[in-house]
Predict the structure.
Amino acid sequence: MGNAVKLSTFLEANTNIDLAKLILSLAEGCKIIGRLVNNAGLSGIIGTTGDTNVQGETVQKLDDLSNKILMDYLRASETCAGYLSEENEGIATLNQNGKYIISVDPLDGSSNIDVCAPIGTIFNIYERLSGAGDVSDADFFQKGMETKAGGYVIYGSSTILVFSTSNGVTGFTLSTEDNDFYLSHPDMKMPEKGKIYSLNQGNTEKFGEGVKNFIAYCTMVDKETSRPYSLRYIGSMVGDLHRNLIKGGIFIYPANKGEKKGKLRLLYECIPMSFLTEQAGGKATDGTQRILEIQPTELHERTAIFIGSKNLVEKAEEFLKG
Ligand code: AHG
Ligand code: MN
Ligand code: MN
């Protein structure tokens, strides 16, 4: 791969050894998940397990496998003390003396598995608050502002790891030549002015007036602001966020009549994506406050989210205030 910078080299130079070990273990696990995703149709692992998870959602076989793979690899890191996952009801202690804890969505957008659309793994890393021994729920109830590292791996036309350790956002592409991650997207910046809006517009009737009015604003013709904006929605937060991070845009999952706090989970979907977005110069809010300032009180709690380019998030906030 010539002079391309390896993930391990980058981590050695940019973070401490414990965090580097943890991120490298995570990346190894995600390589395995990526291979499974690529070969899903051939390996007979498309489809559901027949179970529902703690959130009452259908579990795909790959959701379950990805969760087990991550737990195994993170245990092997020796520095990951605790593990919270969309697929597990409670937290797990992986290493009694580990310094860090992780929250993961092992496979995000898993309803897209069967149709070969981009899916991903989302993760957020905190320092544990408890000294040693078993981790507790309280370790995970930290505001997003305390995040030490956060990001995602997208399994799309390429497999790319995008993360931040509070020092900007960097992307590493998995080479199919030697199965290693190489620096491909240095210093990623969320364009300040986006022209894409992403939400499940089919739910419009269930949204509040503020969101409805923002959608009307996006679809209005106005030469000066290049409207109407383009609607792009994959239905996989990782896929939609990755596109918007590169091209600029806003991703919205609002509260609605059926889901008073929205659908997406605070600790392993919204906080890591908001941390990353802010690190890239964008914004993220639940409509009234910055996502990174929300005090978590439940492991699987949900929140509404408006996230992306500054101009669009600020415009959405204007409509939400009424
Ligand atoms: P998951 O597959 O981890 O349950 O997450 C799916 C999420 C998210 O990725 C996506 O943005 C959203 O669900 C799509 O929901 P709708 O189908 O309601 O639009
Ligand atoms: Mn998800
Ligand atoms: Mn998931």
About this structure: The longest helix spans residues 17-38. The helical segments are 7-14, 17-38, 61-76, 137-140, 209-219, 237-247, 266-279, 310-321.
